[in-house]
Amino acid sequence: MQPHSTSAAGVPGDGQGDGDERSLPRARQALSDSVYESIKAMVMDHEIAPGARVGIEALARALKVSPTPVREALARLEADGLVVKRPLSGYRATELLTRQGIDELFEMRLLLEPKAAALAALNAVEAQMDAMERIVEEMQAHPGPNGRYASYRDFAALDQRFHDSIGQASHRPLLADAVERLHAHLHLFRLSNVEGAGGPTVAEHERILRAILRRKPERAAEAMAEHLTHSLERQVEDGDGS
After folding, report:
1. Cα(77)–Cα(64) distance, rounded to whole angstroms?
2. Any idea what DSSP says for residue 177?
3. How far is CA 87 from CA 54, 58, 92, in A?
4. Partner of 128 for a Cys bridge, out of 57, 124, 209, 212, CB 3.0 to 4.6 A?
5. Rounded Cα–Cα distance for residues 131 and 228 (Å)
6. What is the pLDDT of residue 26?
7. Per-residue pLDDT tens over the stretch 24-79
8. Spatial distance between the Cα atoms of 140 and 14, rounded to a whole number of angstroms
9. What stretches of the chain show up as alpha helix (H) in DSSP?
10. How far apart are CA 16 and CA 203, in angstroms?
């Protein structure tokens, strides 16, 4: 990661004008996002090993930033479920899902997401359907899981956005929140970025989208259930339950 300028690190400006002052919040946010993505990549690629302690000062030195954006990044990663904060021992990277954990995750997804897809087919407004179409189109242009997190980060983010957008289009806030809080994609990509899964994933998303666009709730639920079932099968086949 490149060293950041003094202003980007959030140090007050040199009094050159209101424009500089207005740029500081944007610079701070850009730094915060950059540090978050850097640490996230370390966790996803196991440079920070599962279960390992995450040292704030050490990360700040490695990334050439102050401890403040590192703390902000770790708070966001805790919300993502990638690190956990424990009393007196600070942050640690979360452990990888076990086979039982994977089964339970997909059990929850199969309870929630087909219902969300059916409701989206009934309730999605035009803007939401347009957004889903754009996500699928973007996924078609990105490489699927293969290698390090940096190579498939955009694909993973779009994958998450597609599922979250269906939850939001269900117009059931509690259901949408439950789908989003699973953070299923982060946990699964961290466990095993299944090579060659990009094509099937996009094709399965297209089937879900078509059912929603055609206002066919039963077909949308069925397509989502099929997608999740195939996704679980790909995980299991890739790594003996991973």
Report:
1. 19
2. H
3. 14, 19, 11
4. 124
5. 21
6. 85
7. 688 888 899 999 999 999 999 999 999 999 999 999 999 999 999 999 999 999 99
8. 46
9. 18-44, 56-63, 67-80, 99-123, 126-141, 149-169, 173-181, 184-191, 198-213, 217-239
10. 53
